[in-house]
Amino acid sequence: MLTLPEYETLAAAAHGHLCAGQILGLRLAIHAMELLSIEDPAGQDRKRLVTFVEIDRCATDAISVVTGCRLGKRALKFRDFGKMAATFVDLKADRAVRVAALESSKRRAKELFPEIAEKNLQQMAAYRAMPPEELFDHQWVRVAMGPEEFPGYKGARRVCAKCGEGINFERFVMREDAVLCRACAGERYYRPL
Questions:
Q1: How many distinct structural domains can be found in the chain?
Q2: Could you list the mean pLDDT of each consecutive 10-residue stretch along the chain, which spans 193 residues?
Q3: Do 166 and 90 fall into the same domain?
Q4: Residue ranges of the alpha helices (H) in 73-115?
C-alpha cells in the first residue's frame, strides 16, 4: 500500500483535481483493504478483488486508484444507490466487506477545523486526520456473483432477435423463446429519435 499523500497525487491525476470526495474515497478504500488484509490491491493482489461502488462521484475514481479495480477489467461494478459506500469482494478468501461513510463526519469536520471557512478544504483536512471509526461504518457481507460477473469471464455471445446487436456476459432477456437485449426488452435508458 502507498501512503495517503502518494494516493492523493495519483487520485488528482486520475480525476483532474483533489477534493474532499477524493480524500474520503481514498480513505474508504484503504480502510477496506486493511479490513480484508489485502496489502497490494493494485499490484500482486489485483486479480483477487472486485469492488461494487454505490455512487458515481469523486470518491469512485479514488477507490479505483487504491484498488486497481476498473470497469474495463470487469473488476469495478457500479450500483446507482446514491450512497457514499462500496463493497469490496476478496475472491481468493471468499469474503466481502461493505464500507459506508458516516453522515456525522461532515459535522465532525466542522468541529475539528472551525478555523477553515471553506467547506471543501475543511472536510479535506478532517478526512485526512480522522480515524476510520469516525469516518466509516463497515459490515461483513456476502455478495452473490455468477461466473459472468468475474473478471476474465468468456461466455457465449448472443444476438438480439429484435435489433441484431451482440450481447455479452449473459446480459440477455428471454421473451417467448426469443433472445432480446435489455434495451429491446424494455430496459432502454435512451429514446430513439
A1: 2
A2: 94 93 97 96 85 94 95 92 96 96 94 95 96 97 87 84 90 92 91 87
A3: no
A4: 104-112
**Which cell numbers in the block locate residue 114?**
472551525
Which residues fall within 8 angstroms of residue 59, CB to CB, at 6 or more apart? 21, 22, 24, 25, 28, 53, 84, 86, 101
Within 13 Å of residue 17, how many CA atoms lie on the same side as its CB? 8
Pair (162, 131) in one structural domain: no
Asked if the structure places residue 134 within a domain, the reply is yes
**Is 136 within 8 Å of 80 (Cβ atoms)?**
no
Does residue 124 share a domain with residue 104?
Answer: yes
b/e code 29-47 from CB counts within 10 Å (16+ = b): bbbbbebbebeebbeebbe
pTM over 0.85: yes
Number of Cβ atoms within 10 Å of the Cβ of 141? 13
Asked if 25 contacts 11 with a C-beta cutoff of 8 angstroms, the reply is yes
Range of 183's domain?
Answer: 155-187
User: Rounded to whole angstroms, how far apart are CA atoms 67 and 74?
Assistant: 13
